[in-house]
Amino acid sequence: MNGVNGVPLKTLGKGHVGHGRKGLNIVAKVRKVKKHEYPWPQDPDPNVKGGVLSHLSPFKPLKEKPKPVTLEFEKPLMDLQKKIIDVQKMANETGLDFSDQIISLENKYQQALKDLYTHLTPIQRVNIARHPNRPTFLDHVFNITDKFVELHGDRAGYDDPAVVTGIGTIDGRRFMFMGHQKGRNTKENIQRNFGMPTPHGYRKALRMMYYADHHGFPIVTFIDTPGAFADLKSEELGQGEAIAHNLRTMFGLKVPIVSIVMGEGGSGGALAIGCANKLLMLENAVFYVASPEACAAILWKTAKASPKAAEKLKITANELCKLQIADGIIPEPLGGAHADPQWTSMQIKNAILDSMDELEKMGTEELLRHRMLKFRKIGGFQEGLPVDPEKKVNMKRKEEPRPGLISDKALQGEVNKLKEQILKAKETSSINMDQNGLIEKLQREINYEFSEAAKALGIEEKLSKMREEFAKAENEQLTPGQIKNLENLKNEFNENLATAPNYGRLKYKLSLLKEITEAKTFAENYKKALPLKAKVNEKFKEVLEKPTLKQNIENIKAEIEKSGVSNIEEFDQELKEKVLEVREQVESEFVNALESSGVHVTSKVDQTSMSMIKAKVDELNAEINQIIQDVIESTPDLKNKIEILKLEIVKDKNAPSKESKEKIESLQQQIKQGVGDVMSYAAVKEKYEELQAELAELSGVGSDGSLIKEPIYA
């Protein structure tokens, strides 16, 4: 037979050719495949909202209601909700009336919800923006449009499901809609690539922008993406070029553009459809260059710092409106947009119509200029304006220059400046300055010079080896040999220090440190004495104004003028006695006045007696120090502890650890206790008591020994 059984050959998948009894036969197996309902279903519903063309969109209502998701910060609300459900269940089971309790609990729940959502932190708003049940672009579009037709494809062989575009009408006005589309469940999220577009998606949006510009349709874009998809294939296909092309094109479109950030707007992926005349944000939406987690990982090396990063990035709607990046905030219901999607959609609809009414009044040139100026003013600043105190606190502090880079001239200038400040402060009887910063700077410089000198003399290498030996030791006690090596190294450094190349700079900086330390001591003492000085002067004036003393002083002045002698040594005996008597009266009244005001006057010592006291105290201090040194030399345990203490201080000079600090404190305590035992020796006690008796005899100083210096132990 010369015929063909079945269907035409070119429409078949696989064919089998064989010989029949009466000629050539062809047999084929037809594959069973699922019938596609795209682009039209078999029996389209003509009464569907939006008309038959809405069947073009594969987006359909979910068959099952999405499961409620509770965010971490919402858990206290769930406890109240659980109580309400339990009371309602109890009322149903028992038949009792619990309506008052239920109303009270519901009021508490509403108040707690209001308090929580009116004081959200930035990271909490980020979590709400990422909520899995948050309404998507197509949810809002189908809620706000009368008709909507989804348009597919970038005309280059691909249709990216992460970007949805289409034409729709609102109250009879036609708009071009485009936006990022996330999924409502895991299956949809995988299909939509979690709302992360590829270059095909941006090229599809670009095609629709040209289409809208040609036909005069205003453009409304919806932003909700973590960012553009950053895989290898997208980069090969020109992800950056596609975004850049969109940015350039949007600034030249002659139709109004309104962008709405309805979830999270991540970096260039959001900006590629966000160069609009008006940028509006939902109340709990966020717009950022880098996600809080990425920012925290870069700056603080851990994603756990994301709450801090979210605060610093200024990514919320309120912050972005203050910075004039966003132009308005669209309110959300308490609990977020997912709590009442229909109400949120109506707020978006009203915001779109209000913005379009404003923009459509502008001419083409004015519209283009408006869009350009919106972005040109972002980040603008004016020099010479005072910095807001809150901003100043968050500014990066100026880093100190590395030691060794500050010139001697600059250091000398700072020291001279401080001296001048002290002199001026002394003249005005007011001193208020901080020398600690300059002292710390000088100490860093001196430590650096010592380190450089040690390197130049080859001491640092020897010291490092010695430290390694000490670290390997099983116990913390130094052996006599180690103590001797340490002493030799110390002596070698001190002997050869003058030959170091930087010895001149070191000596100069040490002299500056001495000057500034003396200036600091003077400033501190002067500052402490100022209140007392003012009080003493005030009391002295009061004493001189007393009628009796004032009269006596006037009388003695008259007698001195009458005698015609100005020098006290030329006075006759009677006049001298009168002068001394008045002087004693003044001193007595002055001391009484000071005592009554709480100022204790210990004694009156003349210059000669004070010199004798100082000489005796210095002599005793020298003897005590000599005794202590002799005892330390004759006590190996005490000497050993002092050497260990020195080594610990040198070892962790720059950044001492907690363990090192504790060890140093323990050693200092042990050394002080050992020296305290020395102070109880009979010879020292006897000399101390003798000096106390002499002091009491000379000046009436009490037995507290306040004039005797604390001895230096090490």
UniProtKB/TrEMBL annotation:
<dbReference type="GO" id="GO:0006633">
    <property type="term" value="P:fatty acid biosynthetic process"/>
</dbReference>
<dbReference type="GO" id="GO:0016743">
    <property type="term" value="F:carboxyl- or carbamoyltransferase activity"/>
</dbReference>
<keyword id="KW-0808">Transferase</keyword>
<comment type="pathway">
    <text>Lipid metabolism; malonyl-CoA biosynthesis; malonyl-CoA from acetyl-CoA: step 1/1.</text>
</comment>
<keyword id="KW-0547">Nucleotide-binding</keyword>
<dbReference type="InterPro" id="IPR029045">
    <property type="entry name" value="ClpP/crotonase-like_dom_sf"/>
</dbReference>
<feature type="domain" description="CoA carboxyltransferase C-terminal">
    <location>
        <begin position="104"/>
        <end position="358"/>
    </location>
</feature>
<keyword id="KW-0275">Fatty acid biosynthesis</keyword>
<keyword id="KW-0444">Lipid biosynthesis</keyword>
<keyword id="KW-0443">Lipid metabolism</keyword>
<dbReference type="GO" id="GO:0005524">
    <property type="term" value="F:ATP binding"/>
</dbReference>
<dbReference type="InterPro" id="IPR011763">
    <property type="entry name" value="COA_CT_C"/>
</dbReference>
<dbReference type="Pfam" id="PF03255">
    <property type="entry name" value="ACCA"/>
</dbReference>
<protein>
    <recommendedName>
        <fullName>acetyl-CoA carboxytransferase</fullName>
        <ecNumber>2.1.3.15</ecNumber>
    </recommendedName>
</protein>
<dbReference type="GO" id="GO:0003989">
    <property type="term" value="F:acetyl-CoA carboxylase activity"/>
</dbReference>
<dbReference type="GO" id="GO:2001295">
    <property type="term" value="P:malonyl-CoA biosynthetic process"/>
</dbReference>
<dbReference type="GO" id="GO:0009317">
    <property type="term" value="C:acetyl-CoA carboxylase complex"/>
</dbReference>
<keyword id="KW-0276">Fatty acid metabolism</keyword>
<dbReference type="InterPro" id="IPR001095">
    <property type="entry name" value="Acetyl_CoA_COase_a_su"/>
</dbReference>
<keyword id="KW-0067">ATP-binding</keyword>
